[in-house]
Amino acid sequence: MAGIVVVFDFDKTIIDCDSDNWVVDELAATDLFNQLLPTMPWNSLMDRMMKELHSQGKTIQDIVEVLKRVPMHPRVIPAIKSANALGCDLKIVSDANLFFIETILEHHGLRNYFSEIYTNPSFVDEEGRLRDLPLP
Protein backbone atom coordinates (compact mmCIF):
# COMPACT_ATOMS: atom_id res chain seq x y z
CA MET A 1 0.00 0.00 0.00
CA ALA A 2 3.04 2.27 0.03
CA GLY A 3 2.47 5.32 -2.14
CA ILE A 4 -1.26 5.45 -1.43
CA VAL A 5 -2.53 8.69 0.05
CA VAL A 6 -5.82 8.64 1.98
CA VAL A 7 -7.42 12.06 2.48
CA PHE A 8 -10.07 12.51 5.15
CA ASP A 9 -12.48 15.31 5.85
CA PHE A 10 -12.87 15.82 9.59
CA ASP A 11 -16.37 16.98 10.55
CA LYS A 12 -19.01 14.34 9.85
CA THR A 13 -16.30 11.96 8.63
CA ILE A 14 -13.71 11.28 11.33
CA ILE A 15 -16.12 12.62 13.92
CA ASP A 16 -19.91 12.19 13.80
CA CYS A 17 -20.80 15.88 13.99
CA ASP A 18 -19.64 19.37 13.09
CA SER A 19 -16.98 20.34 15.64
CA ASP A 20 -17.89 24.04 15.63
CA ASN A 21 -21.56 23.34 16.29
CA TRP A 22 -20.66 20.74 18.92
CA VAL A 23 -18.62 23.24 20.96
CA VAL A 24 -21.20 26.02 20.62
CA ASP A 25 -24.04 23.69 21.64
CA GLU A 26 -22.19 22.02 24.51
CA LEU A 27 -21.14 25.38 25.96
CA ALA A 28 -24.73 26.69 25.78
CA ALA A 29 -24.11 29.40 23.19
CA THR A 30 -26.49 28.16 20.47
CA ASP A 31 -28.93 31.07 20.71
CA LEU A 32 -26.24 33.71 20.15
CA PHE A 33 -24.69 31.61 17.38
CA ASN A 34 -28.03 31.35 15.57
CA GLN A 35 -28.62 35.08 16.00
CA LEU A 36 -25.22 35.99 14.50
CA LEU A 37 -25.10 33.29 11.80
CA PRO A 38 -26.90 35.30 9.08
CA THR A 39 -24.73 38.37 9.70
CA MET A 40 -21.15 37.18 9.27
CA PRO A 41 -18.86 34.69 7.48
CA TRP A 42 -18.36 31.35 9.27
CA ASN A 43 -14.79 31.86 10.49
CA SER A 44 -15.55 35.37 11.72
CA LEU A 45 -18.60 33.97 13.48
CA MET A 46 -16.60 31.22 15.19
CA ASP A 47 -13.91 33.68 16.24
CA ARG A 48 -16.66 35.88 17.70
CA MET A 49 -18.20 32.88 19.47
CA MET A 50 -14.84 32.02 21.03
CA LYS A 51 -14.61 35.66 22.20
CA GLU A 52 -18.09 35.46 23.71
CA LEU A 53 -17.39 32.17 25.44
CA HIS A 54 -14.14 33.57 26.83
CA SER A 55 -15.95 36.66 28.13
CA GLN A 56 -18.41 34.32 29.89
CA GLY A 57 -15.51 32.70 31.73
CA LYS A 58 -15.17 29.60 29.53
CA THR A 59 -11.55 28.48 29.39
CA ILE A 60 -9.48 26.59 26.87
CA GLN A 61 -9.71 23.62 29.24
CA ASP A 62 -13.52 23.86 29.11
CA ILE A 63 -13.32 23.68 25.30
CA VAL A 64 -10.87 20.75 25.48
CA GLU A 65 -13.21 18.83 27.80
CA VAL A 66 -16.11 19.37 25.37
CA LEU A 67 -13.96 18.22 22.45
CA LYS A 68 -13.01 15.04 24.31
CA ARG A 69 -16.71 14.09 24.32
CA VAL A 70 -17.27 14.55 20.60
CA PRO A 71 -19.07 11.55 19.07
CA MET A 72 -17.04 9.24 16.85
CA HIS A 73 -18.15 6.06 15.13
CA PRO A 74 -16.47 3.05 16.79
CA ARG A 75 -14.97 1.86 13.49
CA VAL A 76 -13.15 5.10 12.68
CA ILE A 77 -10.14 4.60 14.95
CA PRO A 78 -9.47 1.01 13.81
CA ALA A 79 -9.84 2.12 10.16
CA ILE A 80 -7.28 4.90 10.61
CA LYS A 81 -4.87 2.57 12.39
CA SER A 82 -5.29 -0.13 9.72
CA ALA A 83 -4.68 2.26 6.85
CA ASN A 84 -1.58 3.55 8.62
CA ALA A 85 -0.33 0.01 9.32
CA LEU A 86 -0.67 -0.77 5.61
CA GLY A 87 1.67 2.12 4.84
CA CYS A 88 -0.87 4.62 3.58
CA ASP A 89 -0.06 8.31 3.93
CA LEU A 90 -3.00 9.83 5.85
CA LYS A 91 -3.96 13.49 5.51
CA ILE A 92 -6.87 15.68 6.58
CA VAL A 93 -8.41 18.46 4.49
CA SER A 94 -11.11 20.27 6.42
CA ASP A 95 -12.82 23.56 7.12
CA ALA A 96 -12.76 22.90 10.87
CA ASN A 97 -10.05 24.65 12.87
CA LEU A 98 -6.66 23.22 13.73
CA PHE A 99 -7.11 23.45 17.51
CA PHE A 100 -10.31 21.41 17.45
CA ILE A 101 -8.89 18.79 15.07
CA GLU A 102 -5.60 18.34 16.90
CA THR A 103 -7.27 18.25 20.31
CA ILE A 104 -9.66 15.50 19.25
CA LEU A 105 -6.97 13.50 17.44
CA GLU A 106 -4.57 13.77 20.40
CA HIS A 107 -7.29 12.68 22.82
CA HIS A 108 -7.79 9.50 20.79
CA GLY A 109 -4.06 8.92 20.22
CA LEU A 110 -4.39 9.56 16.49
CA ARG A 111 -2.46 12.78 15.83
CA ASN A 112 0.74 11.05 14.72
CA TYR A 113 -1.12 8.93 12.16
CA PHE A 114 -1.63 11.98 9.94
CA SER A 115 1.24 13.47 7.96
CA GLU A 116 -0.61 16.69 7.17
CA ILE A 117 -3.66 18.64 8.29
CA TYR A 118 -4.80 21.35 5.92
CA THR A 119 -7.41 23.47 7.65
CA ASN A 120 -8.21 26.86 9.14
CA PRO A 121 -5.48 28.10 11.47
CA SER A 122 -6.26 28.73 15.10
CA PHE A 123 -4.27 29.61 18.19
CA VAL A 124 -4.68 30.50 21.84
CA ASP A 125 -3.83 34.18 22.35
CA GLU A 126 -2.10 35.80 25.32
CA GLU A 127 -5.46 36.20 27.10
CA GLY A 128 -6.17 32.46 26.84
CA ARG A 129 -8.82 32.93 24.16
CA LEU A 130 -9.04 30.64 21.17
CA ARG A 131 -8.71 32.57 17.93
CA ASP A 132 -10.20 31.02 14.78
CA LEU A 133 -8.88 32.38 11.48
CA PRO A 134 -9.79 31.70 7.86
CA LEU A 135 -7.27 30.15 5.51
CA PRO A 136 -5.07 32.85 4.00
TrEMBL record:
Source taxon at top rank: Eukaryota
GO molecular function list: metal ion binding; phosphatase activity
Coiled-coil blocks: none
Cofactor: Mg(2+)
Keywords: Hydrolase, Magnesium, Metal-binding
NCBIfam families, alphabetized: DKMTPPase-SF (TIGR01489), HAD-SF-IB (TIGR01488)
Name listed for the protein in its UniProt record: Uncharacterized protein
Organism: Liquidambar formosana (Formosan gum)
